Amino acid sequence: MISRRLVLAGLGGLAAAPVHARVVPGFTEVSWLDYEARLGARASDAGGGAFHAATERELLALTNAVRVRSGAPALGWSAELSRVARSHAADLAGRGYVEHLSPEGFDPTHRVGLLARRMIGSASENIAYRRASDETTAAELMGIWRKSESHWSNLMRPRHAQVGFGVVSRGQKTYAVGLYARPDGALGAPLPFRLAQDADLSSALRQVSPHFDSFALTDPTDEAAARARIEGADPLPPGVYQLRPRRRVDRSRYQILWGPIFARV
Question: Is the Cβ–Cβ distance between 109 and 254 less than 8 Å?
């Protein structure tokens, strides 16, 4: 069971509310489980195409070169973000679409929550697509992003500290995904996606770094539900949840951050 002392420490006089996963139309528990499984498979099979690790690393070098020239700090490589980026690039290749939203409606925040099992924070996503008879280079992908104000802004944003790229080719088509982030913290160990016992969640919260004042569990599709908190020591009902660490801003306000998504089965 989840320890009240562990998860409610630092809440002071704020009232605690019970946690229930509210099912949003189109996002059933089964759809979350299916999409997580799909992304995991794409990280292995490249959506029927091939990953290009050398191009991914060249994107890192080119990105840091333009950032440093503009006065922004260089980005560090994130294996977690790269896995998320590769999975989405492979899904684009496998199903033949070019969108930030999956056909089911899952967005970049959902993908990071599903696959980045230690990261606390959110990421900005770039995507690029090129169809040509010759091999697509990192410079050509950078050129595509340079033509988009929003994508170039993601790439150049000074606050970002880490990045992961995924590049997949299938036939004459190349799909690229970049994920840029400044993580706010990390769990000491990956949180299992399928949580069979509450003790696994309690263990993850004990190892989180840096210190957070408290934690919430919310429906990952419902931002308004971020006021919900883990309630007492009652067993967590089955459902899909997102871990939301809370960091105190001042005496009366908290900043609510993003953590991994998991299914209590």
Answer: no
